[in-house]
Specification:
Blueprint lengths: L1 H15 L2 H8 L5 H28 L10 H12 L1 H15 L14 H4 L9 H6 L4 E4 L11 E5 L2 E4 L1 H20 L4 E4 L6 H11 L2 E3 L11 H4 L4 E6 L4 E2 L3 H5 L8 E4 L6 H9 L4 E5 L10 E4 L5 H27 L19 E8 L16 E6 L1
Parallel strand pairs: 4-5, 4-8, 8-9, 9-10
Antiparallel strand pairs: 1-3, 2-3, 6-7, 6-11, 11-12
Helix pairs in contact: 8-13, 9-13
């Protein structure tokens, strides 16, 4: 019943459509004339466009661009984007506004403490205060022997008196200058992280030696065994090497430094003990938790501040540099402030001094494992 009704319904719709539509759908012939005519019209239109483009290109003249160098091109680019004009305007404004406003005082530049450290005459309380030299440790960590260096207590921390620090630092500078002026050798020791550059720089200025790694126990007390492979050379009063003393230098005992500057005495108490056994004077930075009797010339200051350590090492290095300059000036005048060593017994070849240098053997392990750089320890006697 349902199928019959569906057929009747669709049959009515099919019969209502016009017969032309049926005839068009059943036809198989195609009118090719209309399609060919449309294609020919499109080709003619594209050909006309191509000819118009060629005529325009031929009508235009060829312009040759002159070759310019890189400097002229950069100048043209600056003039185009206005950078040069803006910079000239900025300079003009700076010149007009220069007398106005406040003057900026010299500010802190970290690299200057290593490349251009202050001189002993430039020691001020402001410099020590800015380098945090006055900060000590907690009151529970203090050493009672440092009571004469402590100014007071602030929030449970001992404050070091900067007047005392400045006075002791000036005294240490006079000691370093006096040792180098008389031809002595100064050993700078600092093996905490970050102290390598200032230690090396101070040793270069004082023409001494440096140690920025672990101290080998027995380097002074047992030097004939630990330092027996070191090299030696003979120099005159102007630090010029004199050859021909290999046999005499082989019979000399191990040499020792004339002064030791220790930037962290807590980690190098073994070295300080060896210096005390051999009557070698020492200079050290003493914090509130350290024992000031460990060193000969203590400098009460903050040994945990890298800036403070760089200031003290730089000042002592400058003092050694001044002493070396004075020694050379006196040598030019024929005044030798030290007693030279006569290696050949009665040789009249002049006054000489013996220098021993030992590279890469301070710890007995060769080059440093951290940076691949060998550590140098030099000792000198006259």
């Amino acid at each position: 019943m349902i199928l019959r009704k569906a057929a009747i319904r669709h049959g009515r719709i099919l019969t209502a459509t016009p017969t032309k539509t049926w005839m068009r759908c059943l036809a198989t012939e195609v009118d090719l004339q209309d399609s060919v005519g449309g294609i020919e019209a499109e080709l003619e239109h594209s050909l006309r466009q191509t000819k118009s483009i060629e005529s325009e290109a031929q009508s235009q003249k060829i312009q040759y661009v002159p070759q310019i160098d890189a400097r002229t091109l950069a100048t043209q680019n600056l003039q185009k984007d206005g950078t040069a004009i803006a910079f000239q305007h900025h300079q003009r404004q700076q010149k007009l506004n220069k007398p106005l406003g406040t003057t900026i005082s010299p500010h802190y530049q970290p690299h200057r403490l290593v490349t251009d450290p202050p001189r002993p005459s430039e020691i001020t309380l402001e410099l020590l205060l800015a380098s945090q030299a006055h900060l000590g440790h907690k009151t529970s960590h203090w050493n009672p022997a440092n009571s004469r260096y402590i100014f007071g207590i602030r929030q449970g921390i001992h404050i070091i008196s900067l007047d005392v620090t400045a006075a002791h630092l000036r005294r240490a500078c006079r000691v370093v200058s006096g040792v180098t002026e008389r031809g002595g050798l100064v050993l700078f020791v600092g093996n905490r992280p970050g102290q390598e550059r200032c230690v090396v720089r101070a040793a270069e200025m004082a023409e001494g030696c440096h140690l920025f790694e672990r101290w080998t126990p027995g380097s002074i007390t047992n030097g004939h065994q630990i330092l027996r492979a070191c090299r030696m050379k003979v120099v005159d009063e102007f630090d010029r090497t004199i050859p021909g003393y290999g046999k005499e230098l082989a019979d000399l005992p191990a040499l020792k430094p004339d002064l030791v500057v220790c930037l962290n005495p807590l980690e190098n108490w073994v070295m300080l003990h060896e210096c005390g056994l051999n009557a070698i004077p020492t200079i050290g930075i003493i914090d509130t938790d350290a024992n000031p009797t460990w060193v000969t010339y203590p400098i009460p200051a903050n040994d945990d501040s890298l800036r403070c350590v760089q200031v003290i090492a730089g000042v002592l290095g400058r003092a050694g540099e001044e002493g070396q300059q004075i020694r050379r000036e006196r040598a030019l005048q024929g005044d030798i402030p030290y007693t030279p060593t006569d290696l050949r017994g009665g040789d009249d070849s002049g006054k000489r001094q013996v220098i021993s240098s030992k590279a890469g053997r301070a710890s007995g392990q060769g080059p440093a494992a951290s940076g691949g750089q060998s550590r140098a320890q030099e000792e000198e006697i006259y």
